[in-house]
Each structure stands twice: as C-alpha cells, then as structure tokens.
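Bug #77: duplicate submission created two jobs. Keeping one. Sequence:
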Amino acid sequence: MIHVPVMREEVLALLSPREGATYLDATFGGGGHAEAILEAARCTLFAIDRDPAAIARGAALAARFPGRLTLIEGRFGEMLALLGNAGVTRLDGVVMDLGVSSFQLEEAARGFSFRLAGPLDMRMGRDGPTAAELVNRLPAGALAALLAEYGEERHARRIAARIAAARAKTPIATTTELAQIIRAALPPSKERIDPATRSFQALRIRVNDELGEIARGLAEAASLLAPGGRLVAIAFHSLEDRIVKRFMAAAAGRAARPSRHAPASLEEAAPRFRLLTPRPLRPSEAEIAANARAASARLRAIERVTEPAS
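Kept job's structure:
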C-alpha cells in the first residue's frame, strides 16, 4: 500500500529541518514523515517503532539515505534509553504521529480492524496480552469500565454484558465475532461510524498502554530537545489530544494540569517552552478529500527556549 503521511507540510513547516541537525521520528510507522524530513535537509534522523514490521519496512528508506537514518525497535516512551544506547542525548526536533498506523489497520492478521476478519490481537509490538485475552478474561464490570474510559462508549455496560454472555458459550477469538456481538448489543443509531468503533479503540489503547506511552514519550522528548528544538505531535482522538494539549500548555507555563497518565514529577520538572500552536492545526479540506484518515487530526507544537535542567 502507499503510505500518505498526515499533515506532511505542516510538520515540515514547524520542524524546519536544517543541515547538520538531528531529529527523531518517534512513531516511524510507514516512514512518510521520516522521508519528508530526510528530503528536506541533509540532516540525521533517528526513528523509533515498537512494531518489528515497521522497522523491517524502513530498511529501504535507510538504504536511500545511507548513514542518515537509524531505525530503532522499541517504545517511544522509552526514547531516552533507546537514544542513549545510540549515543544521542540532544535533539533538534521530534515528530510524534500518534495512534495506530495504516499498515496495522490494513493487515487482517494484526487484528486491529473490525472490517477485516482476523485474530483478536491488536498488539503493536510482540509482547503483552492480546485483545482476545482481555475480552475473554476481564470481569464484565472491568470490561465495561475499560470501554467507557478508553472508548468513551456510552453503552459500555450493555456491550460488556453481551460479551460476557457470548464468551460463556465459547471464547471470542476473531475481530468479526467481536464486532458482531457489539453491533447486536447496541440500539439503532443515526451515527455514521460503525457501532464497534469505540470498543475496538478502547481495547487497542488498553492493549498497547497508548495513553501512558504518549505521556511518557512527551516528557522524554521534551527533555531531549536543545534550545530552539521543536516537538510536533499529531493526535487523532480526544483522549490523545487532551494529553498533548495539557502537556504542552504546562510546558509553556500556561497551565499546570498534566494528564494523570504522566509521570508524577512532570509538573515540577516541566521545562520552559514556547507554545507554537495556541490552537491545534487541522488538515486542509484538500488533504481530507485525498486522505480520509486525516479528518480527525489535530497538530500541536512547542519550542524549547531554555537549556534543559541538568
């Protein structure tokens, strides 16, 4: 498939890649933003992804830019350690394109999409419990709480009860099985989205600890930036965007209410930054027409104005 990076031009305008500088694509995915950065200036780029398939795909891009792209398999919430192992302690810019990648959604065997029949997995990496384990083992009350918190699903209890009844007969093993159970649990609705959308989002977020990962990644990225360095983050739903918004506002001294998913010391340790996007940037109508996935994107950015605390 052809990967189209979301808000490519806006990312480049804010990062403003320059020759000799060092950047990080914290969420490599299909490599679209990485390619754009490497083409924009003769710089050095590090790229992180927990998905081994993404790292393998990146080999071709690394070959196009010999000596300039280093691919690292791991969680971006652990970028301090991952980059430290590569001898990198300062960055001139970081881009984070949050959420699931198009490649993961389109690969049935990964189990991310309710539109494709596949095993109920949803892991971005190779470790941790699968979605099937959560669906089949969590008590109905805990499952309802998960769907309500991470999917903002109003009918979480009804869905959890229907799942519990179905799994009592036989374990739920596939994406299509789960989607059918969810759809059958909900009343008719005029919403355009599939009834399974919020529940699948909730399970994916929980399986991959996405919100905790975002909070840790933002904090570590901020600590790595040199003065003048910029952090650009693209979120696709309100849970992600809320964490990014609060973090950047706190970092810029505009608010001190970081997400509960963030490290406890974040507020006290927040460095001084300048907020580059008082309001989030949104994709153009032309981009949305060409790439429907971009429709919900919100881009926010900050710039370091002081040296990091030693």
